[in-house]
Batch of 4 targets.
Target 1
Amino acid sequence: MSRRAWRRFLRSPRAEVLVAETGGRLLGDLLLLCRVDSRKARIYSLVVAPVARGQGLGEALVVAAEQAALARGCQAVSLEVRADNLAARGLYEKHGYRPLKVLPGYYDDGADGLRLLKPLPA
């Protein structure tokens, strides 16, 4: 994502930027978008630094995003993930995200995507 896009999201009242860091070093981030006219939040981006993978940071960011979505009154969280990203799909499935739609050729390189959805508890 470009610096310009990040600046726009950081200023937006409809975006939540969650970070995982230690000692001032950024290890991961998650961008959650919440539209005004929707009760569904969207995980737009989740990134964990290669050196920090396998430590549960992605999982912690997803849980925090779900809590942020609930606090905003959302009833569900959706996201798109590469169909061939088995690690990410496993993380989301572990947390109750289920396939909603196949997105053929969704990514720039032609890879397929999946739209996942998780209803949140009332």
Note: Strands lie at 15-22, 25-34, 40-48, 76-82, 98-103, 113-119.
Target 2
Amino acid sequence: MRFGPGFLVTAAFIGPGTITTASMAGANFGFSLLWVLVFSITATLVLQGMAARLGLVTGMGLAESLRENLSTPWARWLASVLVVSAIGIGSAAYEAGNLTGAALGIQSLLGGQLQGWSLLLAAVAGALLFSGRYALLEHTLIGLVLLMSLVFITTMVMSRPDIPALFEGLLLPSIPAGGLTTTLALVGTTIVPYNLFLHSSLVARQKQRLEKNELRKIQCDSGLAISLGGLITLAIVSTASAAFFGQQLEGGSGMNAGNMARQLEPLLGSLAQYFFAVGLFAAGLTSAITAPLAGAYAVCGILGWSTDLNAKRFRGVWASILLCGALGASTQMSPVAVILFAQATNGVLLPITAIYLLWLMNKKALLREYRNGFKSNLLAALIILFLLGLSSYKLWSLL
């Protein structure tokens, strides 16, 4: 089969933040939180599957659909403010971390100044986006995802994880003492609202014929790519568990995505260090490309602007996101206030977007025979209830 938009979704959610969160989960709690990953990937498959079907059937991305189907001006205005805040500003806030993560990976391999690598990688991401060639972007990101898969899975195999304990963590849900925050972080780093906008827009822009065979191809692509993303995250958790479980490391005292590559050397040897550094580079670069792209699709779609890759406003939005990230990475600023704002707005946006998507997927006039069935609605409703609880907890903790 041909790889497609689903792999860009995986490229988007496997980034330095995911590596750090998965590393913390494995280091502090071993395999006990792997069941959270199973839930997160299942929820992502359901929601992204609906988003992709929406794009294929309607020919519109989620943002355009949101704008077209909200009947009152105040509702469209509120949606525009929320999407621009959560997706546009949020992407800019996280972009510095994406570039820094990629730069840390390449610095571990080649040395040099972190700021210089950050600026160079921002230029590479900008050149790919400015080319306006979707095929080039897709092939680059798919290649980087496959590279991540190779290096992280190989590193996991080298770490020789405890297989019975791994399956126990996958199948027996439990939250160990002090593990609630990490549990929520694992969910939040996998189920992200801008991927719903990105996936639907990428499928819609292909303008393929609406056939059940085509829908099946899109579903297979999404299932394979998102499952592969889950496997990558599982590999990171497993490697961190084998290397660090029992040390009770904290994110600010030695355990982060930048230095984990070096810390693995005593257990796995020098090759594993370089493998992990390559994976970190690939994860950071994929997110550094997809975050501006997703932000541009969401912002331009909700504001009624063209979502063509060569449109001036589209380029202006992704360039602004990339520039903010490059400035943050090159000056090593920590935009804490902006990131907290982005987390809060994303916490509000995710369940609202999921509820709207579920409502839309039941509109017979819009989707005809492609609308949701009972089982899909039940599963989506359960996921949304959990996301509402997650968002409420996030907002409470931030405030």
Note: The chain is about 80% helix and 0% strand.
Target 3
Amino acid sequence: MRKEKVISNYSPWSDYELSTLAGRVLKAMQDTNAIANFPTPNPALDVLETLVNNYIAQHEIASRRGSALEISQKNESREALLVGLRNLAHYVNEIANGQLSMLLSTGLVLVAQPSSSQLPLVPQRLRLRDGRVSGMMHIDMTPVKGAWDYEIAIGGSINEQGEIQWNQTLMTTSSRGNFVMELTPGTQYYVRVRARNGKGTGDWSEPVSLIAR
């Protein structure tokens, strides 16, 4: 069986996916369990915090139809974050040496193990984008091998405990060309997806978000 490890290259991920991942990794690495497991991370926690916060801030600015300068600044902060996450993943993989609990404590994504006739893998590269009209949102993802269909959950609010309220569900057989209508402009919507095949239903993806136009 192949040794467990986390992904080191997140460059194929969309800005929305990367922003969500970065915030999760920073929070996880600041937890006492992760600090005990990884006492000398590369990059250091204060450097990681700067990389993450700078990218998230630049991404939010650029996503509101930013100028060429703002988009360029976002891209530069993205590249710096990708380098930081790659270094962190290499450090984590070396220290954890395949120990699953340690890897999971970082918030980084595990490399998928090869499988045959098993539950479908978690859908990757979930992407949200504005539709052609106000209140419309397109939803795409990378196809999951062997998946029969996909369940898409949509939430438009967060409760007092900071949990997303999933109040709408869609079923689709396609990983592309999915869309929802009649969203409230200016509202931030969250989306997650899971795949299904003859063995059952896989795990949910990490949620991504988009402010409806």
Note: The first strand starts at residue 127 and ends at 130.
Target 4
Amino acid sequence: MTDGSEQDGRRRRLAAWRKAERTLWRAPVESTVGERLAALAAAADAGSATGVYDLDEWTDVYGDGIVAELERRVARTLGTEAAAFFPTGTMAQQVALRCWAGRTGNATVALHPLSHPEVHEGGALSVVSGLRTTHPTAAHRLPTADEVRACDEPFGTLMLELPLRDAGFVLPSWDELTAVVDAARERDAVVHFDGARLWECAPHLGRTLPEIAELADSVYVSFYKSLGAMSGAALAGPASLVAEARVWRHRYGGQLFQQYPAALSALLGLERELPRLPEYVAHAKVVAAALADGFRAAGVPWFRVRPEPPHTHQFQVWLPYGAELLTEAAVRQAEETGVALFRRWFEDAPPGVAVTEVTVAAAGLEWTRRDVLYAVADFAGRLQGQEAGAGPTAGGPRPSP
């Protein structure tokens, strides 16, 4: 932001997004504590239309009750023998990869350098779990079968992030995915899916969630990234692996006394958001195409929508401006017009280029192509005004035809 502390900037952004009349996505962080708890209890009560659990039941203690019910529901949804709830995905994946290292006798994990453990976990795989990593490819996509076969050292586990978030939420085709899994098997390796966003992969892959999960030896899924839960994750796979993972979960400090708010919100997400994800994925393609056409019409000197079309309901947008300028334009657009087209922007290579992630969810379904084009024109005008040192021209939100 151009002024104030980072905390002040965050509060300003949240206030702008919260008050926006039109947005592509309503993030859970836009609610207050009281609002979130009240909405959760009202929506999740078994006596309501969307109810998922009897709120007169006792709270959980060390993973029983509602947590155990969530684990059963996840295993049933993914078609696996069992599932274990974890407070974080970082812990779930470390436990999974550590268990497989013990079973295969090989502590090397083959994964993409842009995968979550390599970029966002502070080297935890090696520092905490004693694992090594190798990279079959550095291209901005998942590795191919040939790249897995050509990996120059043995590995016990191949980890595939589906979709690969930092490369633009990209996915392989179904045939490519099955070929990669087969290549790992040829090397006597097990396969683990980092499925933090696995829930929305089915439309692109053209298969059901159980069919996708069946390819791997284990799968991790997140509850808050796509399903809108408060927090939490699950590790799913064979019953013997999940039983071992529960032991390691305790050793890693993940055997929490009570977790019923997170579990309840996860059950609600499975019930309410999961069935709608294909709808979000389809509309994300409409939004992405309109964004590209809008940038072209506005004369933006260079841009990228990646991938085009999107593989899931999330994708990246790249623009040749500084992140601070882009974020300021996005916040001002929300504040002055009630339209939140983009959220926060971040600097990335090459220098002078910034990237943002676009999510299309329930709120985004109201946007027509015309709405997107109008919002892009307004946003681009703000960029040009800020670059010239003039105040941007603000316009009100344009209604859908």
Note: The chain is about 45% helix and 15% strand.
